[in-house]
Amino acid sequence: MMHVEKKNFIGCSRDAFFSVGAPVEEALSSNFNEYVVFPGFCDVHVHFREPGFSYKETIATGSRAAAAGGYTSVCTMPNLNPVPDSVSHLEQQLSLIRKQAVIDIYPYGAITVAQKGEQLADMEKMAPSVIAFSDDGRGVQSEDMMRRAMILAKNSDRLIAAHCEDNSLLCGGYIHDGVYAQNHGHKGISSASEYVQIERDLRLAEETGCKYHVCHISTAESVAMIRDAKNRGVDVTCETAPHYLVMDDSFLQEDGRFKMNPPLRDAQDRHALLEGITDGTIDMIATDHAPHSIQEKNRGLSDSAFGVVGLETAFSVLYTHLVKQGVISLEKLVELMSVNPRKRFGIPMGNSFTVWDLNETRTVEPEKFLSKGRATPFEGWVLNGKCIMTLHNGKIVYRA
Fold first, then answer.
1. 3-class SS at 99?
2. pLDDT tens across 183-224, in order?
3. What is the distance between the alpha carbons of residues 135 and 109, in angstroms, rounded to a whole number?
4. Residue 269 designated active-site
5. CATH homologous superfamily of domain 39-353?
6. In this structure, are residues 366 and 374 in contact, taking their beta carbons and an 8 Å threshold?
7. Which of 85, 201, 288, 357 is catalytic?
8. Who is most buried in 107, 207, 212, 382, counting CB within 10 A?
């Protein structure tokens, strides 16, 4: 093995990487000095669609797509069939994970039965087998229900990871209630539909002492509220996604690959999110990888399903548009994509690494994704950074 400078290892141990031994020697070419080694990335917000919707994604395709993006740990959301709201329903998902996953997959348990918000799920019995609790895809509308869920989560030493959305404020909207919606005759989703529920949950988290995590924040008000709550000592963390950091509603096109929930907000919101990243208010970046079939995403903005894929583009998008533009350092990006999510959710690193050629330029071509999903707002973008290899627990799980 040829000599590799210490600077090529960002946020991980050089000795631990080389302890993998022969598989690395066989896989890497002689230009290894041009590569950078990172700890395996960790995404706390993905949708792998099994059981119930394997035509969209499977544990096998989702985990391979994650490995291709440098991820070695992911947390899967519970909008499945059956919903993991009981031990028996959860076991169906766990069985698939044991058989098909090439990386570590940690499932969420649902907060409410069938994610309907009417009755609490069997949280206490599921707690030892889930990473946290969420009804992602839906906001918990009842304040009393969320309070009781937070108490149960605290007693079980688990987080509540909340999709914050007040249904009474949606008014049939499907993109941001901004200039694009007004100019093109679309129904808009107000920013208040997100931050009003965040405000409620922060108050409940402060009251109950629950460990609370806010999913995919997208508005300036959300950033400000979470910043204030942290200053008050509330045990809260939050995530945003790559598309909210590098795009706003001025990027919208009449295409379902620009439709996600929450929607792309305006430039002011995007700038506030960037401030939240740099000042530490936003703790991590998650993809909200949400694959659908081609048929479900080719119906335009109004009728396509919500959700875009992101595991295979996340690092390159963020490296190109945040690190290379001087917004954050490369070390900070690794904290946001690996260190912080693992620390908050208690996910071990293990012997997991990902190797990147940061000099490589590539064009985003969805037809080459390992994911079944093809809908990405970054289609056609030219990005810096190519994943050369991902190793997990001493095995190569992806090689370019």
1. helix
2. 999 999 999 999 999 999 999 999 999 999 999 999 999 999
3. 8
4. no
5. Metal-dependent hydrolases (3.20.20.140)
6. yes
7. 288
8. 212
